[in-house]
Design a protein that fits this description.
This protein is an all-alpha fold. The protein has a single domain, classed as Tetracycline Repressor, domain 2 (Orthogonal Bundle), CATH 1.10.357. Helix 2 crosses helix 4. It is elongated.
Length: about 150
């Protein structure tokens, strides 16, 4: 039961961090400032960790939510136009459902360095490549082939 309480507490801290980082960014958030995370006593307020795993975990949650929820559509046997339309609908639903996390992902991911940030960027690229693999629509003429650099 103690692990459940710890997991609940971690979830509260992540939710508070999510909102704070979305509003202020990672670097603009002071490590020394205390923020309320579901506690009633000011003396019980924890320091919100700006360094360490929290920024990466928040960005990873955003990417995983979008990629995981799109995978069944990408794997489905359906016409390419329907597949792309459903992936776009899913993407918008996930953006709206997780707006703070997505704001963090887009504003902060490319400011982060370290191997873990590189892994998050690779995950994002893999999602985009998965969508680009819906090439049958180009082969059957549903989608036109457009080369923006060619005139």
């Amino acid at each position: 039961m103690a692990w459940m309480a710890a997991a609940g507490r971690r979830k509260q801290i992540l939710q508070a961090a999510q909102k704070l980082f979305a509003d202020k960014g990672f670097r603009e958030t002071s490590q020394r400032r205390r923020y309320p995370v579901g506690v009633s006593s000011p003396s019980g307020l924890p320091l919100l960790p700006v360094q360490g795993p929290f920024p990466y975990e928040l960005i990873d949650r955003a990417g995983q939510a979008i990629a995981t929820s799109a995978q069944s559509t990408l794997d489905a046997d359906m016409p390419p136009a329907n597949k792309i339309a459903e992936v776009v609908r899913n993407h918008v639903r996930q953006l709206l459902r997780n707006i703070d996390i997505v704001r963090i992902q887009f504003s902060e991911l490319f400011k982060l360095h370290r191997e873990r940030a590189d892994g998050l960027r690779r995950d994002m690229s893999a999602y985009v490549r998965g969508i680009a693999k819906v090439k049958q629509g180009q082969k059957d003429g549903t989608f036109s082939t457009y080369h923006p650099r060619r005139k």
